[in-house]
Amino acid sequence: MDKLIITAAICGAEVTKEQNPNVPYTIEEIGREAESAYKAGASIIHLHVRYDDGTPTQNKERFRECIDEIKKRCPDVIIQPSTGGAVGMTDKERLQPVELLPEMATLDCGTLNFGEDEIFVNTENTIKNFGKIMMEKGVKPEIEVFDKGMIDYAIKYAKQGILLEPMHFDFVLGVQMAATARDLTFMVDSIPSGSTWTVAGIGRHQIPMVTMGIAMGGHVRVGFEDNLYLSKGVLAESNGKLVEKVVRIAKELGREISTPDEAREILGLKGNSLKNIRQEPSPSI
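The structure corresponding to this sequence follows.
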């Protein structure tokens, strides 16, 4: 069984300081929260960025500034920008951080109901264009899936050469698909042999999904984007506290925690460097 890769989704695009005052908005706060997660045992920082007032943005320069701050504090951590952004953003907006040539970035493989009247749109052309651009730039996609049909899309595009195998999947459970042992097992059994996977449970589902993911040999994601509480009714003081809880569970279940370099080996990353970010032309959509 591989060592456990812990991803910390430190702020997302939707949660606010009104819900938990420790949610980071500013560049310094994002750096602080990434460092807290890294020091606790996270190898990957899943990154959304905000303006200082909390407004979510995919602005490339804001990403650059936040990445520089994180790398100053955590030089070897893997930074995984989101190309999901926030509901209502255009494809061109969402792709901006890929221009910075990160080692990884997320790729959502389907449209989903995000809550109430909010719909997060990913058409087939969006998925294919994002996949092609990431492949051209040597950025490994983390395939974000919210139900089983999104796995099928990823497999179809891999057969077409738009996505490269082995693929890495992130099962986000508790949004559109239920978060149960049955559902996680079904998702794991549905991906191609040789794939790697991470599980993220939303809200109260976070720790049960983490525990199952560790026991099943997968990898896990925690953080304020998905859950603001350390335990029922107790707000987490930092992303680091959530990672510490995962590390304790992993220790009890006999899983060692990977370093960032060990995570790179497990995921087959080619090592795009964010230390010397260069300008790239804007992708065409």
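The domain at 6-267 is CATH 3.20.20.70 (TIM Barrel).
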